[in-house]
Amino acid sequence: MAAPNKKKSIDSHSIITKYMNYVLEHEEYPKSVYKFCKESKIKEEEFYNFFGSLDSVRKGIWNTFFSTTMDAIHKNEEYDALSSKDKMLTFFYTLFELLTLNRSYVLMALNYDQVPFKNLKQLQGLRNHIKSFAKELIEIDNDEKLFKIAKNPVSVYAEGAWLQFLFLLKFWMEDESVSFEKTDIAIEKSVTAIFDLFDNTPLSNVLDFGKFLWKEKSMWN
Question: From CA 174, how far away is CA 97, in angstroms rounded?
């Protein structure tokens, strides 16, 4: 006699998966937690054990993209020995590979509202994660510099890393090349250029970084 099937336990990852599937299948966000839970066959109390609202699920998806990326790169035994530049390259390559695996959802989520700012609200947590990651890399490089004048302003470069991600995200969204090879090139060029600036020409403000990003974008237009 076959053993009875055990009900799969509900956790944050399963809720996120169900939410993404719901959005893709209905081509819209669920209108309420009740409606989402009913169609996803989960109890509302199970939902609220992990998320306080549907908005927190949308933000949680991007936080999960980040944590999954970090888990993947840290499984590489050689990662810790990489330079800060190569760690940043590895991070962006891995993150955009993950986004590509979920491209249909990401494109829908980032184009859902006609007001771009509203679409970007879901990236608030991811912004903090990327800035913290960049800050850690900058601080490691600064510790290796003997003279204070040669050290880079951590807050400026952390914000710069976030702007770089937004640039690469928009580039990737518009990329029609096979296997998104142009995005890979854009990642390599932008990270290399930024770390060249880190080492040779400290930036005084984020505006200089922004000018570089627009210059990179114009190369492909």
Answer: 15
Token couple for 89: 């390259």
pLDDT digit string, tens, across residues 56-111: 999 999 999 999 999 999 999 999 999 999 999 999 999 999 999 999 999 999 99
- pLDDT digit string (tens) for 137-184? 888 766 555 444 445 567 778 888 899 999 999 999 999 999 999 999
Torsion of CA 164, 165, 168, 172, to 10 degrees: -170
d(CA 165, CA 65): 13
Is 3 exposed, middle or buried (CB count within 10 Å of its CB: 0-12, 13-18, 19+)?
exposed
Q: Round to whole Å and give the CA distance between 60 and 54.
A: 10
**Position 2 confidence tier, pLDDT thresholds 50, 70, 90:** very low
Beta carbons within 10 angstroms of residue 201's beta carbon: 9
- Rounded to whole angstroms, how far apart are CA atoms 155 and 163? 12
Largest CA distance in the chain: 75
Give the up-direction half-sphere exposure of residue 139: CA atoms within 13 A in the CB hemisphere.
8
Residue 95 contacts residue 69 (beta carbons within 8 Å): yes
Q: Identity (one letter) of the amino acid at 18?
A: K
Please name the residue that has the structure tokens 């549907």: 54
Asked if residue 3 has pLDDT above 80, the reply is no
Residues sharing a CB contact under 8 Å with residue 113, sequence separation 6 or more, in sequence order = 119
Q: Give the residue-averaged pLDDT of 33-44.
A: 96
